[in-house]
Write a structure and sequence with these properties.
The structure holds 2 protein chains of 2 kinds. Chain A is α/β, with parallel strands linked by helices. Chain A has a domain of about 130 residues. Chain A contains 4 helices and 12 strands, in the order αββαβββββββββαβα. A 12-stranded mixed sheet of chain A has the order 1-2-3-4-5-6-7-8-9-10-12-11, covered by helices on one side. The relative contact order of chain A is 0.07. Chain B is α+β, with helices and mostly antiparallel strands. In chain B, a hairpin with a 2-residue loop joins strand 1 and strand 2. Helices cover about 20% and strands about 10% of the residues of chain B. Chain B starts with 19 loop residues before the first helix and ends in a 17-residue tail after the last strand. In chain B, the strands form 2 sheets. Chain B has a 3-stranded antiparallel sheet with strand order 1-2-3, covered by helices on one side. In chain B, strands 4-5 form a two-stranded antiparallel sheet. Classes of the chains: A alpha/beta, B alpha+beta. Chains A and B meet through strand 5, strand 6, strand 8, strand 9 and helix 4 of A and strand 4 of B.
Amino acid sequence: MDPMKAEQSSRRTTAYDVRGLAEPDAVAPKTAKVTGDTAELDAAGLTPRQVNLELRRLIYGEGIIEVTLLNPGAMHSLAVGLLTRCRIRIEGSLGYFGCGLIDGPEIHITGRVGWSVAENMMAGVVVIDKNAGSLTGAALRGGDLVIRGQVGARTGIDQKGGTIIVGGTAGSNTGFMMQRGRQIICGDAGHGLGDSMYDGAIYVGGKVASLGVDCVEADMGPEDDELIDRKFGIYDMDRPDSFRKFVCGKKLWNYDNLEPHERKLVL
Amino acid sequence: MADDFDTSGRKLTTSKGIDTEELTGRTFPYQFDLSLVEDVDLNEATPGQDINWLEDIHLMQEGGMNAVFDRYTNAFLKIHFDIPEGRGDEIARKVLIKHLQEGNSYGIWLKHKHAKFAQPELGSWLANSQTVGENWKPSQLEGWEPPLH
C-alpha cells in the first residue's frame, strides 16, 4: 500500500477519547514480574501505551520504586508523564520523545535515543549511555540530562532550566533560544552555538564551529568550576582539561514596559 | 490541605504581579517563621545526588519583599521573615519545598478539579500522596447543546 494511504488508514482505525488520548480502552497488561518493591517489565509485544500503563500501574498503584524495562525496541514515547520519584532502567534504545514530561524519576537508558528525549522534564535525572538525536532536552525545565555519547542538532532548544551534559560532540544550533539552565558539552559544538539565547550558560570543552546570533564568550568563575566538578563527580565522567563559557550578549534584549515583569515570571 | 480547597478569600487585583496570597486568599505559617523550614532536607526532597531542579530556584523580590517563585503556580510566594546573610537561595528553596510538600501550591490544588489523568497529587515531593484525576469528566457549559451536524 502507498505509505501515505497506509498512514491515513492507520489514523482512521486508531481510537482517541475526548482528551486526545490514543487507545483509550487499553489496560495495563499486568505482565511485569514483581519482586518486593522492584519489578521487571518485558516490552516485547506490547504497544507504547500498554508499556506506559504498566509503568503507571507499578509505580503509582503498586508502590514499586525500581523498574527494569527490557526490549524497548526503540518504541516512541516510552516512560513519559511520570510524576513521582522512582528509578527506571531501560535496557536498550528508545525512539522519539522518550522520558518526556517527567517530574521526579531517575532513568538510565543503556542504548541510544531518538529526537527530543526528556523534553519538558520538570525534575529528575535521565542518563543515556550512547548517542541522542536532535532536540535533546527540548524545553527542559529542570533536572539533569546526561548523554555520554554524541548529540544531534538544537540540543536544549528553548531550555528553561536544568543541566544538560554531553560527553561527546554536539550538532548545530546547540542551545537555540535557550532561556535558562546550563549545558556542558565536553567535545566540539557545531555552527550557531547559543543562537538567540536569552539567558543560561553553555560550557564547551572542545572547538566551537561558530557562535549564533547574540551569543558571546564569558569568563569562567569559581562557581562555574564548582558546578562542572560536582556534576562530573556525580556521573563519574572524565572532565576535559578546560572549558569555555558562552552566554547571551544581551544585544537583542528589547523589552517594553510590561515585558521585564513577564520575563521575571517566565524565567 | 487539598481538602481545604477554598479560595473564597482571595482578592485578585489589577497589578502586574501575581502572588500566592492573591490567588489563594491566605498566607501560610512558614512564610513568617524561619524555624518552620530550617529542617527541610533539600537533597532528600529532590531526585539525584544534589539539589536537582532547585538549582534554578533563587531568592527573588516581588512587591519590594523577598519571595520565591513557585513554578507550579506561576506565582510568587512572599517570605516575610528576615533571611540570614548569605543564605538567601537556601532559605528560598526550603520555603518552596515546604510549600509544595504541604500541598499548598495553588497550581497543584487545581489538579483536583482539572487533572485529566490519574496521577499522584504531590508529585515528587511527598511519597504516597493521594491520587487525583481518576474521575475527570469534560465540563459541560450550561445551556449548551451539541450541534446537530
